[in-house]
Amino acid sequence: MNPIPLAVLTPIAFAFTLPLIGKLSKSVAKAYAVLGTFLTMLFTFEVFKSSEGGPLTYTFGGWRAPIGIVYEVDTMSAFLGLVTSTLLFLIAIYSLEYIKSGEVWYFTLYLGLEAGLIGVLYTGDLFNLFVMLEVTSVAAYALVMFNRDPQSLRAGLKYAFIGAIGTTLYFIAMGLLYRTYGTLNMAQLAEIVHSSDVVNASLAILLLATWAFLIKAAIFPNHFWLPDAHPAAPSPISAVLSGLVVNVGIYSIARLYFTLYSGLPEVKSLGTLLIILGAISAFLGAIMMNVHSDIKRIIAYSTIMHMGYLSMALGIGSSLALASAVFHTFNHAIAKSLLFLSAGIMIQIGGSRDLRDLAGIGRTNPLAMFSFAVAALSLAGIPPLNVFSSKVMLFTAFLDWNPALAGVLVVTSIMSLVAYVKMMRVLWLGCGKKESVGMPVMTGVVVAISIAVIVLGLVGPWIFKGIALPAVAQGWESYVAGGLGG
Amino acid sequence: MIDLWGVAIVSLVLTMIVGIYGVTARKDLVKKLISLTILGDSANAFVVALGYRINGKPPILPSGESVATFAKTAVDPLPQALVITAVVIGMAINVLLAFAIIQLRRVEA
C-alpha cells in the first residue's frame, strides 16, 4: 500500500476531528493530538523507506499524472519529511506540559501546520505547493499570535502581512508559468523546460517565485519579520518555526532551481543574487546576535544566519553544495529546535526572556542547561556535535567556489560562538537565585534531543554519504521519469 | 485604435503595485489590510485574464461538438479554477488578519 496519502491525510484528519474530541475531554484531546503526530511520523518513515529505489508517486482521485494532482516524493523530500514529522512529534510531547490553556485550538493549529509542511515537501504540483504553503502559513500566523497579547499580535500581523504578499507573488508567478508552459505538474514542466527554448518569461517567473520563497526563508532584505515573530510565539512554536517552517522556503527554491530549471542561464544569474543575499544575511545575523539581550531574539537571529548559509549553498548549486545544504537543513533543524526548547524551560522558570533576569538559572536546572549548551555549541560548529559535520561540508563546497565565502562561514561562526559563550556564561555563572521547578516531560524531551545531537554528530559523515549525496544525485531526469512514467 | 486588452493588463499590474505600496508604506493596520485585499484581488483578476481568449466561448462543452475544435475556441477554465482556490485561501487570511487587528484594538484600549 502506498504510504503517501496516509502521511499527508493523517494530520489533516486529526486536525479536523480534534475540536470535536476537545468538547468531550481536554486530556483525551491532548493524547489524541500526540497520537496524530506519532502516526504521521510512522507513515513518513514508511515513505522514506519506500522512496529509496526512486521517486514514489501518488495520484489523488486516480487522475493520471499531468492532469490530476500528483504527489511525488524523492529522497530529498522523504528525508526532510521524516525529520519534520519526527521533530513535530517530540515537540508535541513537550507542548503537553508547556501549554496551559487553549490546548485544543493549539493542537488543531499544530496539526494543520504539520499537514502543510508535509504537503509542501511531498507535492509534485506547483499549484498544490501554493495551497500547502498557505496552509502552513495560516497556521503559523495564528500560532505566533497564540498568546493574544499586544506584542505577539503585532509580531504576528507583521509576519502575516509580509507572508501574504509573498504568497500572492508566488500565485502571480504560477499564473505566468501556466500561461507560458501550459502545465503546473512539476515533472512535466521539468521535461518541457529541458527540451525546448520557451524561456522568454522564465526570468520573471523565477524572480517572483524566488522573492516569495526568500520571504518564507527570511533571507535579507526580507528577514525583518523573523526576529519579531519567532520570539513572540510560545517556545515550542518558536522551535517549529525556526527549525522547520523556514526550511520550506529553502526546499522550494532548491526544487525550483535544481529540478525544474536546472542548468539554465537564468538560474546561474539568480544564483549569484542568492549568494550575495545569503552572505549579507549571515553577517547580519551574526552581528545582531551579539547586540541583543533577549535570549529568544538572539536565537532567532542565529536562524537568519544559518538560512544565509543555505542560500549561499543553493546559489553555488554544485552537487556537493546542494548535498551539504540538505544535510545542513537536517542538522540545523534538530539543533535549533533543541536550543529553543531548552531556552523555553529556563524562560518558563525565570518568567522573562531577558538574559539579565535569567542570570544563574542554569545552576538550578542542570539538565536544561546541559541541553542548551549542547545545542549552542553544536550550532557554533564545535566538533563532535552534529552541525559541525555539515559546516565542514558547507566549508568545502564554499571553498571550491570562492575562498571568500568560506571566510564568511568561518567568521560568522566565530561571531556566533562569542554570542553563545556570553549567553552560557550569564546563564551558568551569573548571580541570581532561582528556584527549580519540576518539568519532567519537557526536560525529558530536551535531554533526548541533545543525546540525538551528540550521536548524529558521530554518525554524520555516514548520513551525508548515505542519504544527502544520493538524494542530490537523483537529478531531474529521474524526477521526470518517476512523475510521468507510471 | 487603442489596444484595450493591453490597457487592462497594464492597469492590473499598476493596481498590484499600488497594493504592495499600501501594505508596506501605510502605518494604519486597517489600511494595510485594505491594500492587501487590493493586491490579492488584482492578482486574481490578472490570472483570470491570462487564461482569457478574446471572443472565446465559455468553457462548457456543448453537446455534439468535438472536444478538439472546442478546445481551440473556448476560454481556458484552469486559471479560473486556480483563482477560486486563491479566493478561498485569501478569505481565510483576511479573516485571521481582521481578527488580529480587532483583538489588538481590544487589548490595547
Automatic annotation (TrEMBL), chain A:
> Protein name, please?
Monovalent cation/H+ antiporter subunit D
**GO CC term, one of those recorded:** plasma membrane
Q: Which domain of life is it from?
A: Archaea
The membrane topology noted for this protein in its Swiss-Prot or TrEMBL record is: Multi-pass membrane protein
All copies of the NADH:quinone oxidoreductase/Mrp antiporter transmembrane domain together span 124-415
Q: Give the transmembrane ranges.
A: 6-24, 31-48, 68-92, 104-123, 129-147, 159-178, 198-219, 239-258, 270-291, 303-327, 333-352, 364-383, 403-421, 441-464
Subcellular location(s) of the protein: Cell membrane
Q: Which organism's genome codes for this protein?
A: Pyrococcus kukulkanii
Give the keywords, sorted: Cell membrane, Membrane, Transmembrane, Transmembrane helix
The record's annotation in PANTHER family points to:
NA(+)_H(+) ANTIPORTER SUBUNIT D1, NADH DEHYDROGENASE
UniProt keyword Nuclease present: no
Q: Which InterPro entries does the record associate with it?
A: CPA3_Na-H_Antiporter_D, ND/Mrp_TM
From TrEMBL, chain B:
Annotated TM spans: 6-24, 33-54, 81-102
Predominant subcellular localization, coarse grouping: membrane
Keywords, ordered alphabetically: Cell membrane, Membrane, Transmembrane, Transmembrane helix
| Pfam families per UniProt | Oxidored_q2
UniProt-listed Gene3D superfamilies: 1.10.287.3510
Q: Provide the membrane topology annotation.
A: Multi-pass membrane protein
Q: Which InterPro entries is this protein grouped with? A: CPA3_antiporter_subunitC (IPR050601), NUOK/Mnh_C1-like (IPR039428)
Name where it's found: Cell membrane
Signal peptide segment: none
The record's PANTHER family line, in alphabetical order, gives:
ANTIPORTER SUBUNIT MNHC2-RELATED
The name on file for this protein is Sodium:proton antiporter
In its UniProt entry, the species of origin is given as Pyrococcus kukulkanii
